[in-house]
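RETRY 2/3 - previous attempt timed out on the joint model. Re-submitting the same 220-residue input unchanged.
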Amino acid sequence: RKEVEQDPGPFNVPEGATVAFNCTYSNSASQSFFWYRQDCRKEPKLLMSVYSSGNEDGRFTAQLNRASQYISLLIRDSKLSDSATYLCVVNANDYKLSFGAGTTVTVRA
Amino acid sequence: DGGITQSPKYLFRKEGQNVTLSCEQNLNHDAMYWYRQDPGQGLRLIYYSQIVNDFQKGDIAEGYSVSREKKESFPLTVTSAQKNPTAFYLCASLGPQETQYFGPGTRLLVL
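RETRY 2/3 succeeded.
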C-alpha cells in the first residue's frame, strides 16, 4: 500500500465552480500535512499547510481528518489559473516527506 | 534572490555513462533532498542530507550517489548502474515549518 494515495483525476470543471478532492495516508503517526501545486513541467510549490482545525487561504480550504486518515482540498470559484496538479504531502518524521502522485484539475472557460 | 538552482535544465546520457546533476542553494538550509519524478507518479526520494558531510539513502537510491561537502551544494550522480534513468530530477531543501523549496528540475534523457 502506498503511503499517500490520491485520485489522479482529471477533474474538469467550468470557471466559477467548486471542486474538492481527498488524499489518504497510511501512517497514523503522521504529524504534518501539506498541499503543493505543480504546473506542467515545473517544480512543485507550497500551496498551503493543513492544520488539525482546518484552514482557509482565500478560495482554498484544507481539512484534516485524523480518524479516517485523509486530508482534503476544496477550491471555490475556480479560475483558469487554478489548472494544475495538486500534490498531497505527508510528513511522518522530521526529514522524510511522502508525496502523493497528484490530482489534476483542469478549469475550462 | 534566495533560492535553489539546478543545472543543466536538460541532460542527455549515453549508455554506460555517469552523469552529474548540480544543485546549489543560498537559503542557508541544512537539509537537502533529491527526488525523481516519472510521468503519473509522485516524487520518490533518492537521497537526502540533514547536514554537511552526512547523507542517507531514500527509497530508490540504487544506481545513484551523492556528496555533501558544502552546505550550499548537493550534487547527484546518476551512474551506469541506473538502468532506467530517464526522469525529471528535483532538488529541494527544507525550510521553516517543514516547507520544501524546490529547484526548477533537470530532465535526464537517455540517448
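The CA atoms of residues 7 and 67 of chain A lie 20 Å apart. Closing ticket.
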